[in-house]
Amino acid sequence: MGGPEVPEHVRRRGLMLASISTFFAWALEYYDFLIYFSLIPYISELFFPKSNPLAALLYTLLVFAVGYFARPLGAIFFGHIGDKYGRRNALLGDAITMAVATIVIALLPTYSQIGIWAPTLLTIFRFVQGFGYGGEAGGGVVWALEFASPKWRGLVNGVLNSSMSVASLLATGLLLLVSAYYPIGTIGWRILFLSGAVVVIIGLIIRFAAPESILWERKKEEGRIVKVPLATAIRRYWFSLVLVILINLGLTFVFYAGYGFVTTFTKLLSSYMPQLQRAFVQLTYLPLMLGSIGGIIGNTFGGYLTDLFGRRRMLIIPTAILLITIYHFT
User: Fold this and answer.
1) Mind listing the domains of the chain with CATH numbers?
2) Do 173 and 289 form a contact (C-beta atoms < 8 A)?
């Protein structure tokens, strides 16, 4: 690699700030999606007509899906910005996008207040949210790993990915706490969404103080910034791209489908037995919190093991374990 050697203290400072800010941004990403999933029965009542509960529930799920459809577009847009104009600039943009969208959703009027505009605005800002998340999901970890020593990149990536489990732990814990003091269907859901905005704002402040990626700066100095990064990536690495997409598709489906089904089913079940609602919530969320703790340990330790034994091997083993254990939950 060309260019002068970067002082170790500069590398460490960059790694620390990039990792912390990315950890917060990723935590918001998963926190917000999990909160939305957990609140689907309430959101369907707040933002859609109550005359057809099943249709309202399906529309709410469709709005959730809109955020996912926006993510590839955000990844392409912010990925292009990151490759052309710097990782930090792109990540500041997607963090601001996420924060604004989350705050707006938390403050949206309901269907009873503004009618059809309520679900329309919810859909628009879920799209904006997903667009921002698309840039954050890959860009944040690239920025952090470009500061990390090659021998510790697996561990750094594992710690960053543990933010998903931290977000799950935070979401379930706050749901239990907020539901104990505020009605979820009135003010509680707003508190939960605003709590997520606080997380990303903290990460955004840290990101302003962080330096640009060392590797990107070197590419810029050497004149190796390509005109159309996406075209280059597809032409040279199309097989790796498809492979990684398929791997993440399966794992993401298992995670979100399980979490969303359990929380939605609990709300529907408790509506038929309201006297046991609190018990249903505890029976649902306490195991999810334990699973989140396991995820924090697994992500961090698993990342460290990839540094010791290789990426491919340590992807095959946990995936095989997941295939075996998931059968018992169906």
Assistant:
1) 8-329 (1.20.1250.20)
2) yes
